[in-house]
Amino acid sequence: MISKMFKHLVQMLIMSTVFVLSSCNISEKYIGHVVNILDGTMTDAEIVVKEGVITAITPCDVPDDAPYYLPGFVDSHVHIESSMMLPTEFARIAKRHGTVGAICDPHEIANVLGIAGVELMLDNARQTDFYFGFGAPSCVPSCGTDIETSGEILDSKAVASLLKREDITMLSEMMNYPGVLNADAEVMAKIDAAKLVGKPVDGHAPGLVGEGRNQYAAAGISTDHECTQYEEARDAVNAGMFVLIREGSAAKNYEALSPLIAECPDMLMFCTDDSHPTDLVKGHIDQIVKRAIKDGYPVMDVLRMACLNPVRHYGLKTGLLQVGDSADFIAISDLSADFKVIATYIHGVCQNDEESEAFELQDCYSRCAATPITTGDIAYMNEEESVVPQIVATDGSLLTAWYSGPKDSHSQKLVTYNRYVPGARPQVAYIRGFEITNGAIAQTIAHDCHNIIAIGSDDGMIVDMINRVISMRGGIAATDGNETVELPLPIGGIMSNLPGDDLSEINLKLEQTVRQSGCIFNAPFITLGFMALPVIPELKLTDKGLFDGNTFQFVKNGEMRIP
After folding, report:
1. Which residue in 339, 372, 419, 502 has the most C-beta neighbors within 10 A?
2. 3-class state of residue 161 by DSSP
3. What value does the mean pLDDT take over residues 347-362?
4. The sheet that has 73-78: what strands, in order across it?
5. Are 195 and 163 in contact (CB under 8 A)?
6. How many CA atoms within 13 Å lie on the side-chain side of 197?
7. Are 322 and 307 contacting, i.e. CB atoms less than 8 angstroms apart?
8. What is the DSSP string of 506-522?
């Protein structure tokens, strides 16, 4: 208790805050360097907050070492489920890093639990002070039941119903871009439903350029977070789309796309898309802001990308550090590339000492009907063949390549196993890149349908990890041949009710185990999870077979192609 009081006292001194009693109401005053991202100016001033609202910003003399005040950061596209945390816990950790809001696509939990999953996220999010902008998932499943099996399906009627709600901000990423280009009736009905209620439509069209990009944008799709090359992103901007520069745990596009900051900062935002707990505990949007400042881009442009553009585009209600706004702002040490977030305020309340909220688990949250398997169930159809189509995975990217060559020491088995239908047959392919020499991973995180996905150096270890995940009714299991680490994920097989710091600790043990197995990837679990997502080219393994994301067709057994 004494240490907590001392910490609070020190924080108050650092913030140069003064309390004034007036007519039984408390006014709070914050003295420092005030950043106005609307007009690009900075003023030494006193901010007066009364009942959670900024009532005055008055110029005054301040010490040189006083804090800098600016609007909080906003993640312009994130799947909270990838942090394996509930919204309340995600917000608690993100606020440490100066984040006050996030544009969230709940399609991960929707693929498992349907509307009930979206409701779970919305209900939990209401329990904390944080600006969540949740979308109506547009692709559940991502592209069609003939290609993959999800736990639930959201058709255009269900999506239209969600979009009418006040707590739904937009139509989430339209991943079925071939459906848009071919004017698929269901796809266009979802887009039309968003237009009808005046809500933005998020995009997802990796590699789409030229006339295809123009057609995609003309359909009413206003953003894309899947651009990985400068020319591709430039094409999207020219088509009138916002480009979201992504730095997640697995997909990292800042280096390729950052030159756009010098050209069109008003058409850019920052996002993490998928951030594992270990990475979220270390940092969030603040990390991307620091990198951009270090690279010499104008500070005000960078801050507008992080604090203003998402708020305006999505209509978030977060304050922008103006008189009359809700007192939502952050205090940082300086405006250098090494700034520290001192405190985060929402509605005038310091959020830094927020504690984890308890969450009561229910049986209905688990959706794992898969039955245990044996090594015979994952025998490759033509095991004797030395030359087979192989997926090539790359660290730092969700894109894959197609390798047509002989199996060798770099080739490993990849298994995707339907977890919603008891007795389904596992699908098997070969994959290169992970370089696991002695070990295996299995998890019920396989975007976006979240069937079981596994990889390993040995059939016996792969099967053991799959069966462990099944016995947990959802989770992650990894072995290095000696030690096995497990993480149950009782909420849809993709989220935990543990505090974020505890999750980070277990996740770190999982990562260490995988490194001990020989894996060279920085984000092996997130990368593995995307090896089942058919809407990101080139080659992926769904629960129904090996799928070519360029032709949108399954690869026939034994089919070869010149690499």
Report:
1. 419
2. helix
3. 80
4. 73-78, 99-104, 131-136, 170-174, 201-203
5. no
6. 22
7. no
8. HHHHHHHHHHHTT---S
**Interaxial angle between packed helices 115-125 and 87-96, expressed in degrees from 0 to 180 and rounded to the nearest 10:** 50
pLDDT surpasses 50 at 537: yes
Contact between 308 and 285 (Cβ < 8 Å):
no
Facing residues of 58 across strands?
46
85: closest CA among 52, 141, 125, 114? 125
Residue 238 to residue 133: CA distance in whole angstroms: 26
Whether the pLDDT of residue 179 is over 90: the answer is yes
For the chain, the farthest-separated pair of C-alpha atoms sits apart, in whole angstroms, at 85
Q: Which amino acid is at 555?
A: V
Residue 325 structure tokens = 């706004």
Question: Nearest 5°: phi and psi at 288?
Answer: -70, -40
Vertex 534: Cα angle to 560 and 182 (nearest 5): 100
Residue 279: which region, alpha, beta or left (left: phi > 0; alpha: psi -120 to 50)?
alpha
Are 444 and 494 spatial neighbours (Cβ–Cβ below 8 Å)?
yes
Calpha distance 151→343 (Å, rounded): 41
Sign for the CA dihedral angle at 236, 237, 243, 247 comes to: positive
Q: What is the three-class DSSP state of 283? A: coil
* Range in 17-31, 258-272, 470-484, 496-510 the model is least confident about: 17-31
**Cβ atoms of 535 and 409 closer than 8 Å:** no
Rg (alpha carbons) of the chain, rounded to whole number: 24
Residue that the structure tokens 């995609």 belong to: 216
- What residues have CB less than 8 Å from 385, skipping those under 6 apart? 558
